[in-house]
Predict the structure of Esterase.
Amino acid sequence: MKRILHILFLLLLTGFAAMAQRPPAISSPEVHPDHSITFRYFSRKAQKVSVSGEFLTAPVAMTKDTSGIWSVTVPPVKPDIYPYSFWVDTVQIADPNNTYIFANERFKRSIVDIPGDKPLVHSLQNVPHGKISYRYYKSTTLGTTRPLLVYTPPGYDPTGKTKYPVLYLIHGGSDTEETWTKVGRANFIADNLIAQGKAKPMIIVMPYGNVRPSPMPDFTKDIVNDIIPYVEANYLVQADSKSRAVAGFSVGGGQTLNIGLTNTDKFAYVCSYAPFTATDEFKKNFSDWSPNADQMNKQLKLFTISIATEDFLYESVKQNIAMFKDKKLNLETLVVPGGHTWMNCKLYLTNTLQQLFK
Amino acid sequence: MKRILHILFLLLLTGFAAMAQRPPAISSPEVHPDHSITFRYFSRKAQKVSVSGEFLTAPVAMTKDTSGIWSVTVPPVKPDIYPYSFWVDTVQIADPNNTYIFANERFKRSIVDIPGDKPLVHSLQNVPHGKISYRYYKSTTLGTTRPLLVYTPPGYDPTGKTKYPVLYLIHGGSDTEETWTKVGRANFIADNLIAQGKAKPMIIVMPYGNVRPSPMPDFTKDIVNDIIPYVEANYLVQADSKSRAVAGFSVGGGQTLNIGLTNTDKFAYVCSYAPFTATDEFKKNFSDWSPNADQMNKQLKLFTISIATEDFLYESVKQNIAMFKDKKLNLETLVVPGGHTWMNCKLYLTNTLQQLFK
């Protein structure tokens, strides 16, 4: 009987392997205590495998052992969360042994989390946790049911009387409604800053900002006419402009400027990160623009643009900053090192969350 | 000025392309009204590209046009959600132009959704939608903070008095806590069956079932000692065995048998899908087992095992079915065509949801 069980067990294992033609399960990425990282990939047939990531200036070649496992250990990396991918001969792939994927509509890289010696602001810490809810709303503007994510802070009590301010937080161009949580860790950043008393408890709404093939201005209408009413009908929300913020990155940073600055009666906080503004909507709104700066400066409690010096949009953003200042708008800027990255997105958001609703 | 803007715009586009070394955005998969599907992939360098998927008996070669876009259109496929991947020379990849990924800890395939001529039970329909919440609980058993997803049904009102029964629903071996929603569409299936009056409104808790490197029995302890108390402290829950069900697929199907049948005082519904049972815990629980069948049959309102005839676990599951029947347990079986697939998982769950809490 024992022998039969043993044979059965082997057959089952064989079945599992045969079923999915799976390569062996290997550990990748393996982050070491000194913050160096070992990447591994299995292929007997590949001629060349390398790892490419936003912690590297150039791809690093991996070497193959006799069992067909390619690997390389890269020197210590500054603690943060980085996207990376493998190049296998001419093909770019995500790391098949890594659970965590960069939520995106196009090529989805893997992400590696290098913890700090002390917990970072985006780390899962031993503090009360807010809740992320996946919701669906009917967009009358876009004629469809669309997804959005809602972060409610720790202690949010739907049975209570406390109402919260709301940040509407928009992802980048080919990202999805999940990118701000899965890559940007907006929920953990908020949890930690709220626990430290550095941010006010707030609701964060993360909509899906891409509208295709319709033109971009529809998303401004969608957020004003559909998303805000949905949120205010379903959550305990302070429904005045001083309790409403909009922020976003890249294409979402451009959307933030369009949404926020044309609706200063609705948003007292407009926080744009590395905005991409080469759009018809931006041109229409701001290329021949004579704002009532005094009125806008009274309505806006905070208008910020954040940008990194090696961001490929740096020159364009500098011009927009000059343009807004030229129109006499009170504009605060945050200029940091680095590129057009989600490492910087976390930094921008960490800054914003400490400024809002105070 | 217009010329300068135009040049700036071109520079920006170039920047975007250069930044990420991105291939052109192409549409893939494209599902046609007749349920045929066109797959596309861009590579100038690949020698051979094919598509492999659970709607195909063998990989299908794609052909390259002069611009480097490989494509193939496969004949009409039965409406459902299928995992698929591309083989580029010797490398297996997810479809880089498809947003939707099979949530898994190892190789992550893409998924394609072929809608029915009428909406399917797993389709987003125009009915009230429940809410999926991403939560974190402290596991004293496992000594860490772990994720879980909670589906609350449409109309769930934390301020109200209605309490709900709970289904604990466990994923397969290398899946994640997201696989039942992202691939299994448990939320839409529940929304639709509840709207049709075919399922009772219920809460569905989807934990992360993998425990490594610890031995498997820890997850049984975790669900009983940590997850159930967390859920019952945070949701309006009917906290008796007649209002508690456990179900799961593959490795999770084996966990379901271990969890459910050793805790019939806690679970009156035990629904196991294609269980993988070659584990120490299963052996310990059931290889030399003398249950009090009369008592268990009184406690269990429903004990089901579902399996497909071409599932690689079919023979093993048949033996377990015979073993449980031999022990005089009342066991209902559902045997369907097909393999060890998430297409069948949706079918099993659809069946279960209509049987629970009635």
